[in-house]
Amino acid sequence: MKKHIVIWVLMGLLAESWAVVAESTQPKIKVAPKTPIEAYAFNLHDVRLLDGPFRAAMERDAIYLLTLEPDRLLAWFRK
């Protein structure tokens, strides 16, 4: 049993060392986009949820979750 564990550990270390060597010998390739970028990332603090169906659903969900008893929600974790 110990032989099998040692063999698997050595094979894992060998595979990891090959990956490190391959990464260090290959320069990182930067590919230029073929089309112009039309969308950019933005900060989530800039997002505001205005009045509408999504906000109404969010408020209904909050009211529903507040009506639930915490003990019932935690019952599965206490088993």
Question: If you had to describe this structure to a student in words, what would you say it looks like?
Answer:
The chain is mainly alpha-helical and 79 residues long. The protein has one domain. It is 61% helix and 0% strand. The mean pLDDT is 83.
Question: What coarse outline follows from CA principal-axis ratios?
Answer: flat
Distance between the termini: 35 Å
The ordered H/E elements are HHH
**Main sheet specs:** none
Q: In percent, how much strand structure appears in the residues?
A: under 5%
Helical content class: 55-70%
Runs with pLDDT <50, length 5+?
none
Calculate Rg over CA atoms: 27 Å
The count of β-strands is 0
* Average pLDDT taken over every residue: 83
Helix and strand composition category: mainly alpha
Q: Determine the number of helices (DSSP H or I, runs of at least 4 residues).
A: 3
Number of domains: 1
In short:
The protein has 79 residues and is mostly helical. It has three helices and no strands.
Topology readout:
Blueprint: H1 2-25, H2 53-67, H3 70-78
Task: Please give a handful of descriptors for the protein shown.
79 residues, mainly alpha, 3 helices, flat
